[in-house]
Write a structure and sequence with these properties.
Blueprint: H1 8-13, E1 20-33, E2 39-48, E3 54-62, H2 66-75, H3 79-84, E4 96-104, E5 113-119
């Protein structure tokens, strides 16, 4: 058998997203209770890498990590719900936005994995979808007869 040898780090990182900013879609969301008894939402994000491969990344939204919860709401167009203090998991499925992915190193028997470091806030700041880009079509000044 012939193959390209990899370092331990390369072998561990195989199949993982490289750290950076990615578009995501929430494909699953469930209201849960943390080990400490706090309300949280477990989300499963679908993220496509630069090669078109789809990765699933789990994240947990909870009040104890306020910046991440608010940034998620802002980026996903749910700032109004966030500010009301009530954002059930049932309204998250299908929401899209951008997230910042990091690589968590292997620990004990667990392999390295991707994790969400933060979510990208909506540039408008109000949680609504950003306005669509306006494209201006320049008048053509050519002599092509078709």
């Amino acid at each position: 058998m012939k193959f390209e040898p990899k370092t331990e780090a390369e072998a561990e990182a195989e199949g993982l997203l490289t750290p950076g900013e990615y578009d995501f879609e929430v494909v699953d969301a469930e209201d849960k209770t943390s080990a400490k008894g706090n309300d949280m939402i477990e989300v499963v994000l679908s993220i496509e890498d630069e090669n078109g491969q789809v990765h699933k990344v789990k994240d947990w939204l909870l009040e104890a990590v306020a910046y991440k919860l608010r940034h998620f709401a802002s980026g996903a167009g749910l700032l109004k719900e966030y500010e009301s203090g009530n954002m059930p998991a049932s309204i998250l499925k299908g929401r899209t936005g951008k997230c910042k992915i990091r690589l968590e190193p292997a620990k004990g028997d667990f392999r390295a994995k991707n994790a969400v470091n933060d979510y990208v806030k909506n540039p408008g700041g109000n949680g609504a979808s950003p306005p669509p880009k306006q494209f201006v079509v320049a008048e053509l000044d050519d002599d092509i007869p078709f």
